[in-house]
TrEMBL record, chains A, B:
Classification via PANTHER family: TWO-COMPONENT RESPONSE REGULATOR (PTHR43214:SF43)
Taxonomic placement: Bacteria, Pseudomonadati, Bacteroidota, Sphingobacteriia, Sphingobacteriales
Record's protein name: DNA-binding response regulator
Keywords: DNA-binding, Phosphoprotein
SMART domains, A to Z: HTH_LUXR, REC
Record-linked PROSITE patterns: HTH_LUXR_1, HTH_LUXR_2, RESPONSE_REGULATORY
Species annotation: Pedobacter mendelii
Residue list for modification 4-aspartylphosphate: 57
Length: 210, 210
DNA sequence: GTAAATATACCTGTTTACAGGTATAAAGCA
DNA sequence: TGCTTTATACCTGTAAACAGGTATATTTAC
C-alpha cells in the first residue's frame, strides 16, 4: 500500500480549487484531504485532522492568508504551508516567511513547477516560483522609492526608540542633551516621512532597519 | 578559456577566510577576487570592481552584516549575497532576507553543502543550510515565548496606530469613543509588554502582525 | 580645500500618550 | 445555562512627544 501525503487547498476561487484538484488527482502520492474556501473552515478542520501540506491563497474572505498561516503553524507546527497567490509585493512574501510558510508560489506557475515545489517542500526545502526569487533577492527594484539614508547616530537613536526608551533616557545613555536627541528624533520622522514614532517604527522595521 | 565566477569573502576571522579559501581554490569555476575582514574595506572594493557572489559573515567589527548586505544590494543589486554565520536566531535570518540575501548558511555546513549552495545561488536559487530551513519553517520553536493573542478590534487598532493615526482619529474612523480606543491601546501595550507605542510597533512587526 | 552633511545644543508652546483606576453590555464558549 | 472574554465608555493627572523654529562645531566627501 502506497503512503499518501495528506494535502489541503484553501482558496476562495472555486475555479482555482478545481484546477488544482484536477492537477493533483493524477498524482498517486497525494491524497487530497480537503478543499476550503474560507480560513475558518480550514482551521476548524485542522483541529481534528492532520494535514501534511496546505496550499494557501492569501486573499480570503474572512481572514488574510498571512494571519491564517501563523494560526496554522501554531495549531500544527509540522504542517507545511505553501503560499499560492497573485501578490507580487515583496512585503507580502516576507510576511508569509515571517509567519512560517515553507514557500511562495505565484499563481502563474506551470504545473510542472508546482508539482516540483510540492515535492521539494515535503522534503523540507523552502521553495519559490521563479519570479518570486527575483522579488526576494532584488529589494531595490520594488521599493526603490526611497530608502532613507541614516547616519550612525540616527540608527543608534532609532534603535533605542524602538526599544521603548524615552528621549531623556536616550540622552543620558549617549551622553547627549535631551534637546539633541529630540532633534535626531525629528530628523528621523522627516526622513521616513512619518507622522509619529508609531509610523516611524513601522516603516523602519519594514525597511529592515530594526 | 573557462569563465570564472568572481567571488569575495567578508569575515573578520582570518581562520575562516583561510578555510574557505583553501576550499574554494580547488574549484576551477571560481575566481576568488578578494577577502576582507571589515565591511568598509569591502564596500570600497565593490565600488570599483564587480563581484558576482559574496560570502558574508554577520558579525563584523565596523558594521553589522545585515546593514552591509543592504548596502551591497544598493550599490550592486546583481551581486549575490550569501550569509555565513553562527547566528541561529530566526530574526537574524529574516533580516538578512529582508535585506536581499540569497541565502543563509550556518558555519557548520559541510564543504559539499557549501559548494552546492554556492552553485545553486549562482543559478538564482535561494538557499539555506539544513538547520536554517527548520528555523524558518518552525517559528513556534524559537519564540514560542509569548505571541499575544489579539482580538479583531485590537488588530484593527494596532494597524491604524502603526499607520501613524492618533487616538482621536482612530475613534472617529471606527465610530468609537476616544476613551474606548485608549483602552484598546492600553491593552495592546500590556499584551505585548511594551513600554510605549514605539516598542509596541517594533514587537508587533517582528511577530508578523503588521 | 572647500562645501555639504552630521552631530551637537537650545527655546516655546500645544498636542498626545500613558498610568491608574471603574464599569457594563454583548458576544462567545462550556 | 452560566461563565469568560471582548468591546465598549468614562475620569484625572502627569509625562512625553511633536511642531516650529535657530545656531554652531566637527566630520565627511568631492
Amino acid at each position: 500500500m502506497l503512503y499518501k501525503t495528506r494535502l489541503a487547498i484553501v482558496d476562495d476561487h472555486p475555479v482555482v480549487i478545481e484546477g488544482l484538484q484536477k492537477l493533483l488527482l493524477n498524482v498517486d502520492e497525494i491524497d487530497l484531504a480537503g478543499t476550503f474556501t474560507s480560513g475558518s473552515d480550514f482551521i476548524q478542520f485542522l483541529k481534528n485532522s492532520s494535514i501534511e501540506l496546505v496550499i494557501l491563497d492569501i486573499s480570503l474572505p474572512d481572514i488574510n492568508g498571512t494571519d491564517l498561516c501563523k494560526q496554522i503553524k501554531t495549531i500544527a507546527p509540522e504542517t507545511i504551508v505553501l503560499a499560492f497567490s497573485n501578490h507580487t509585493e515583496r512585503s507580502v512574501v516576507m510576511k508569509m516567511l515571517q509567519n512560517g510558510a515553507s514557500g511562495y508560489l505565484l499563481k502563474n506557475v506551470s504545473a510542472v513547477e508546482l508539482l516540483n515545489c510540492i515535492n521539494e517542500s515535503l522534503k523540507g526545502q523552502i521553495v519559490f516560483s521563479e519570479a518570486v526569487k527575483e522579488i526576494i533577492t532584488k529589494p531595490g527594484l520594488q521599493n526603490f522609492s526611497e530608502i532613507p539614508k541614516l547616519t550612525k547616530r540616527e540608527k543608534e537613536i532609532l534603535c533605542l526608540i524602538s526599544e521603548g526608551r524615552i528621549t531623556i533616557d536616550i540622552a543620558k545613555m549617549l551622553f547627549l542633551s535631551k534637546l539633541t536627541v529630540e532633534t535626531h528624533r525629528k530628523n528621523l520622522l522627516q526622513k521616513f516621512k512619518a507622522k509619529n514614532v508609531a509610523e516611524l517604527i513601522k516603516i523602519a522595521s519594514k525597511e529592515g532597519f530594526l
